[in-house]
Design brief:
By secondary structure, the protein is an alpha/beta fold. The chain is built from nine helices and 14 strands. It binds NADP nicotinamide-adenine-dinucleotide phosphate (NAP).
Length: 330
Amino acid sequence: MPRTIRVVEALVGPIRWGVAATGRIARAFANAFGAVGVDDASIVAVGSRSRAAADAFAADHGIARAHASYAELAADPDVDVVYVASLQPSHMHDAIMMLEAGKHVLVEKPFTLSAATADRVFAAARANDRFAMEAMWMRFNPAPVEAVRRVHNGEIGLVERMEIDFTISVADDPEHRLRSLEKGGGSLLDLGIYPLTLAWWIAGPPTSWTATGTVAGGVDTTCVIDAEWDGITARLSCGLDEDGPLSAVIQGRDGVLELHAPFHAATSFAIDDGPIQRLAPASLHHQVHEVHRCLRAGARESPRNPWATTRAILSVCDDVLAQLGVTYPT
Ligand SMILES: NC(=O)c1ccc[n+]([C@@H]2O[C@H](COP(=O)([O-])OP(=O)(O)OC[C@H]3O[C@@H](n4cnc5c(N)ncnc54)[C@H](OP(=O)(O)O)[C@@H]3O)[C@@H](O)[C@H]2O)c1
């Protein structure tokens, strides 16, 4: 019987990154790259809506080519993979533009504003046979990875309860991107996506959830998701108005694991009163190693942060936002 073998293109040689946007996280990404000298790879180009910002970013980070638009970056033939670090309302458009130009993409969280728009990016990745991944860096940071491994290893017994918080104090300024509906602000998609992702990572998809919160200026300024699985309950909280505990407490039948604040970028955790487990610092470069591993293997998605999970988490977000009455402009 004839067999069809799909040969996927694996990247060989140095991996050439482009960065789309020059904001805070784009700078942190370039700094992380520079600090550790990631694999056989470098950032070779940056694109910005502004020529001046692109030039300044390139000069600060020793990047060879500065493009005065994301479209120019997409057209750069000497870029293999683009880190999309623009604001969430343009992630879908920017990622699709890069994929259609033949680039692989690592897209900042939240991947897009909804499950439906995430589907459009995955469809473009499929159609163009390119890699795509949400830059959910927590899933690659050493302390969260090890803590989840311990939980899955049964070290606290069957999980019964999770309390995970990402509440921070954000300037009371309607122009702040987290408080602006047009900029895709709100606590859930920017911060709450971390507690939701960690709970999902530990327990899989919840069977039910209800959300409460406050909405101001059109965005959710606080959000609490009470979620349930078979035998597990969780309280997942986020907000913009005060500094919260920022910890993740996972209670099992035989013990409690606490991932210390800030849990998504934790460097340590403890089980009960046992010794504090210290791991390598969180950094944006850990996820980059995973992108490289996938590109070298010709993979189009990462098994450690697969498309289906990104999509399913966004579909819970869709429902939570509907419960809270938040609607983003299309
Ligand atoms: N992984 C993490 O820990 C982490 C942390 C913070 C943020 N993020 C995510 O990263 C993304 C960027 O956040 P950020 O903190 O870097 O934001 P930021 O400092 O405000 O920068 C956003 C950049 O997006 C570009 N942009 C595109 N369209 C824009 C618009 N209409 N208005 C303003 N800027 C626009 C701009 O770059 P140009 O002017 O160069 O085009 C701007 O510098 C968001 O999706 C956010 O959720 C992730």
